Amino acid sequence: MENPHARTCEELLRFYSVNPEIGLSDEQVEKSREKYGWNELPAEEGKQLWQLILEQFDDLLVKILLLAAIVSFVLALFEHDDQITAFVEPFVILLILIANAAVGERNAESAIEALKEYEPEMAKVLRQSKVGVAMIKAKELVPGDIVEVSGNR
């Protein structure tokens, strides 16, 4: 079903074949789970450090700093003094870019992992096999479940 959030309750109940008084049967739950899978975010593979660094170079500011490092390096090559200190500036700019890339991406991944911890662990649903409202693990929810929504007060 496309755009279930824009449908009426009656349309959703008909589409998922749900009785609003007693909820889904165990058979319907199993069929939905086979079709849609578990109600959880997919696990993402951790990226390699070099991939994280390369992704940071998509940012415009990083590209500008990279261009500045290249210009500084070229100017150091054509400088009349053959001192190694002329290459320090472009080298430092590149080190800062790489360090910023690694730290920034690691922090972003940590933030995503922290958000996953805020997922609700339990849900209140109507199921035919249970009497009244039952507490189940949120990852066991399937499309068509009648869910009780309430606040913390």
Automatic annotation (TrEMBL):
GO MF, any single term: P-type calcium transporter activity
Transmembrane segments: 60-78, 84-103
Coiled coil feature spans: none
Protein name in UniProt: Cation transporter/ATPase
SUPFAM superfamilies: Calcium ATPase, transmembrane domain M
Listed PANTHER family: CALCIUM-TRANSPORTING ATPASE
Domain of life: Eukaryota
InterPro entries in the cross-refs: ATPase_P-typ_cation-transptr_N, ATPase_P-typ_TM_dom_sf
